[in-house]
Amino acid sequence: MTQDTVHIGGRRSKLAVAQSEAVQRMIQDAFQQYSCRLTTTQTLGDQVQFKPLYSFGGKALWTKELEDLLYEQDPELRLDVVVHSLKDMPTLLPDGFQLGAITKRVDPSDCLVMAQGSPYRTLAELPAGSVVGTSSVRRSAQLKRHFPHLQYQSVRGNIHTRLDKVDDPDSPYACLILATAGLVRMGLDYRISQRFDASTMYHAVGQGALGLEIRQGDARMQRVLAEIEDVESTACCLAERALMRTLEGGCSVPIGVQTSYSVATRTLAFSAIVIDVEGTTWVEDSTRVVLGDDWRADAMQCGNDLALRMIQGGAKKILDEINLAKLPVK
């Protein structure tokens, strides 16, 4: 390799910068001859903070502006790799782009953050009518299934903005539901009062992992990213993304997953749920498969097969009946 600089791009939020810096450290640890340069930019999803995500677009909200820079004509501005939260990446990328690698996943669960000074530690302790802040239909749908006596309202903004909102003495929110990984990466995991497993809430597809997007066929970056790819996380996330792709689900529809992969035994365990927005109807299923030598293809086949089985069980009907336009915009 003759080029000694890798130009990394990412979003401008504090969390996104922390994620880009983590990838920078991985590359420089693996390739002592490389220096990395970071560029941050705002995406449409960052700029529109007053509406819930399902009301104005899909995953491209977080990716398009950065993707454009992968093909920028000016070599000083052109990116070599874009760092995304994998859950924000479309399962089908535009022509000319590819998912170059998935890094080691941080805890993919969702978690509960109570307002500062709250006497409560779990959702089960909250009084009827308490307001739970979340902009995710997936989260609110699953919580309505288990906690129908609580209220659910949209809350947008970066992590610190959301924490400020819930901690405001005049806040309507009793608590927030957030991704555990974001709080861990920001050193804010001390705010977590409860982490959820699948018995309460299946996590989002790709949650907790970073997806590294590159130009299609960029051999140099493929060689670089092969050194920082995490096999366990990649197997799990490829299966999850294949399930979502087959179900034709976007970032705001109520599809939840839970996966684990043993590299030693090559065994992938995969559970998933599709649930209606009111939490009253759902399809839940699971599978366990041993991946072969072509483990990436096998992982994606596993996700596809589980999705097809869930469709036969009624999952597609649930998704087809969700009319996001009728959901409240708060």
Automatic annotation (TrEMBL):
Enzyme type, top EC level: transferase
InterPro entries referenced in this protein's UniProt entry, alphabetically: HemC, Porphobilin_deaminase_cofac_BS, Porphobilin_deaminase_N, Porphobilinogen_deaminase_C, Porphobilinogen_deaminase_C_sf
A cellular component term, taken from the record's GO annotations: cytoplasm
Cofactors (names): dipyrromethane
Enzyme nomenclature, EC number: 2.5.1.61
SUPFAM superfamilies in UniProt: Periplasmic binding protein-like II (SSF53850), Porphobilinogen deaminase (hydroxymethylbilane synthase), C-terminal domain (SSF54782)
Keywords tagged on the record: Heme biosynthesis, Porphyrin biosynthesis, Transferase
Name under which the protein is recorded: Porphobilinogen deaminase
